[in-house]
Design a protein that fits this description.
Layout lengths: L4 E3 L5 E3 L11 H12 L5 E2 H8 L7 H16 L12 E4 L2 E4 L7 H12 L4 H12 L14 H27 L3 H14 L4 H13 L3 H19 L5 H11 L12 H18 L5 H15 L3 H20 L3 H9 L13 H17 L7 H14 L7 H16 L2 H13 L8 H18 L2 H17 L3 H18 L3 H16 L3 H14 L6 H4 L2 H12 L5 H5 L12 H11 L3 H10 L9 H15 L2 H11 L19 H12 L1
Antiparallel strand pairs: 1-2, 3-5, 4-5
């Protein structure tokens, strides 16, 4: 099905996959479409549509709505066979719903971008906000802005746009771009003089641009406008800003930050290192790996760059022909890893192959045991999510070696490998919790802050799987505190997703949906494609299947085949076939789907398969899934990821047993 997109940030419009404008016929047709978009995928009863579209509906109003809907369906799904169920504008219960994907409506994309920008560094936030503001083509729901059903949504979107303009201005100021910020803010306060934050930002921009008198004049204008038109005094922020400008308080200057002295030191040391350490020296290569390791924990572009540089460093080390150097370069990248799916499986395979060759080339004596331990831990980490017996075996050998050597740093690295290989079957949350507990204690005792953060996140995941949310909450909060203290931005990605999981586990579906949308908006900047790919649509499926009485067929109605399902596509294909009404193809797809990978979503994907098997009555698959899931009977399916849940495994097992009986 061709992906249709919708625009409401201006006149209501729909575009085809090539960007062509679709002919939506008359204003009533566009009104029906706009009204359904305001419902955000929820059902709007026909009676409500009639009331909203006519001041005094006549006896033929219901028939007219049905005619409008039929015409819209022909435009939105021109290739749908006659009498085949609609996929986009669907009939459900007493009315209609537009099952538009979250990214297919400009207003929804705008909202996600603005909310997500608040979590980003200034440069990334600025880019995201500028792209979001470009989506606006005029007033929201332009031709319907005065309708009662649109007024609230128009006001909300307009407020969000004004906030985005102010966030963009703040990002520019944070980047030291005060002069170019002034014209936009001048226009902003002229059009919206009641917004105190606009006045504050304009005055601050003028001050930082060296225009102190103009800044004070802006604040006096703000006071006069607020008093004269609204009858209120300026708020505390404006009063404080005026006082600070008069005294030229240093706090108003663009903060150089604690890194300014560090930047000068960095430049001097880098220059001296480059001058004194000969080109081609091995010290350069080993120092590079140390930098790459530090780069990785910064997240975002740093993590992506670290992956690239790491592989180049490993290749350069192996080219030297020195297995000891290669072992040191490979083993020095002891960056804690929390997600059991690789961000780059091809690169991981190359790292493993080099580590195996280096292991074989190292002398098998006591002098090289630490190097062997690091290589084995690396193999265990990089083989995450695979079903090769080599991964668990390498993890076990690394842990044994680290304990024998009594080296806390080695043991922390080896325990990370053991965690990565702790998803070989269902029901291992308690094992992962024990690994996390040991990591927290070990890292706290020896000052290994990165591994202490890892241990907290592991325990957050494991306690979630075990349904112990008070403990999971405590570990999430501790991880956030550590992340703030040690500048580890990636931690917030996982704790934010955990917050949405908490809502989902408590049955607060709408709150969870909103939380997932916000969390997903921050993922592209995090540099973790292994986490990002396919995750958001999977959370939607988890919410549908967690609803009481919901089965595969009901969930299939909410499936958008055009969504980016990423690596989860093989387990979603049966739902697509069910949605098409082709049960034979659904069964074939169910049988064709492989065993889910050995990662934190193993139980979740088993439940995804179980829903289809229950609907189709496939006894072979039901029996196999009952055996697979039984060890996790006391857990919440998927909650061990810390991201989503498909509900209690016990409930799924009961349904499987009932079907088999």
């Amino acid at each position: 099905m061709e992906r249709i997109t919708f625009g409401v940030l201006g006149p209501v419009v729909a575009w085809d996959g090539a960007g062509g404008v679709l002919a939506l016929k008359g204003p009533r047709h566009r009104a029906v479409l706009a009204r359904l978009i305001t419902a955000r995928r929820r059902v709007v009863p026909v009676a409500r549509l009639v009331t909203d579209l006519w001041d005094d509906p006549g006896p033929g109003a219901v028939g007219a709505v049905q005619t409008f809907v039929a015409a819209l369906r022909r435009v939105l799904e021109p290739e749908r066979p006659a009498r085949a169920p609609a996929r986009l504008l669907v009939t459900e219960g007493p009315g209609y719903a537009l099952r538009a994907a979250p990214g297919s409506v400009d207003a929804w994309r705008f909202e996600t971008a603005v909310v997500g920008a608040a979590q980003l560094p200034p440069a990334q936030a600025l880019q995201q906000l500028e792209e979001a503001l470009e989506l606006w083509r005029g007033p929201a729901y332009a031709e319907f802005a005065d309708e009662d059903w649109a007024r609230g949504e128009c006001a909300r979107l307009t407020e969000l746009r004004l906030r985005a303009v102010e966030q963009r201005a703040q990002a520019r100021l944070d980047l030291g771009r005060a002069p170019e910020t002034v014209p936009d803010l001048d226009a902003h306060v002229a059009g919206h003089p009641w917004r105190e934050d606009g006045w504050r930002l304009l005055a601050l921009a003028l001050y930082r641009a060296g225009r102190q008198a103009d800044a004070l004049d802006v604040l006096r204008r703000a006071r006069a406008m607020l008093a004269g038109q609204l009858g209120v005094d300026p708020g505390p922020e404006l009063r404080r800003l005026e006082r600070d400008i008069l005294t030229q308080d240093p706090r108003l200057d663009l903060p150089a930050g604690p890194s300014s002295a560090a930047d000068r030191l960095w430049s001097r040391v880098a220059t001296d290192f480059d001058r004194t350490v000969a080109a081609g020296a091995r010290a350069r290569l080993e120092s590079t790996v140390g930098l790459v390791r530090n780069l990785a924990v910064t997240g975002g572009g740093g993590l992506r760059a670290a992956r690239e540089h790491r592989l180049a460093a490993v290749a350069a080390a192996e080219e030297s022909g020195d297995p000891e150097l290669t072992a040191r370069v490979i083993g020095a990248y002891d960056v804690p890893a929390i997600w059991t799916r690789s961000d780059d499986p091809e690169q991981a395979g190359r790292i493993v192959a080099t580590a195996e060759r280096t292991l074989a080339a190292l002398p098998n004596d006591g002098a090289h045991e630490a190097a062997r331990c690091r290589l084995l831990a690396t193999i265990a980490l990089e083989m995450r999510g695979t079903r090769s017996p080599r991964g668990p075996r390498a993890a076990h050998e690394a842990e044994d070696l680290a304990r024998r050597l009594d080296d806390p740093t080695l043991l922390a690295f080896a325990l990370n490998g053991a965690f990565m290989q702790s998803c070989t079957r269902a029901g291992l949350a308690a094992r992962r919790d024990a690994i996390g507990a040991e990591l927290v204690e070990l890292a706290a005792r020896h000052g290994l802050e990165n591994f202490e953060v890892l241990g907290r996140l592991i325990r957050m995941q494991a306690r979630s799987a075990l349904g112990d949310f008070p403990a999971a909450d405590a570990h999430a909060a501790a991880a956030d505190r550590l992340a703030e203290r040690h500048e580890r931005p990636l931690v917030g990605v996982f704790t934010q997703w955990y917050g949405a999981l908490r809502s989902a586990a408590a049955g607060r579906t709408r709150e969870a949906e909103a939380g997932y949308e916000v969390a997903a908006a921050a993922l592209p900047a995090a540099g973790m494609p292994g986490v990002e790919s396919g995750l958001l649509p999977l959370t939607r499926l988890s919410l549908r299947l967690s609803e009481a009485g919901a089965g595969a067929r009901q969930a299939a109605e909410h499936i958008d085949p055009e969504d980016d399902w990423g690596p989860y596509r093989p387990w979603i294909e049966p739902y697509v076939r069910l949605r098409d009404g082709n049960r034979t193809a659904a069964l074939a797809s169910l049988h064709a789907a492989p065993e889910p990978p050995a990662d934190l979503l193993y139980e979740a994907l088993c439940c995804v398969r179980a829903a289809v098997a229950l609907d189709l009555g496939d006894r072979t698959t039901l029996t196999r899934l009952h055996t697979s899931l039984s060890p996790a009977a006391g857990e919440l399916a998927g909650a061990g990821s810390g991201l989503l849940t498909f509900g209690p495994v016990a409930r799924w097992l009961a349904a499987l047993r009932q079907a088999l009986a």
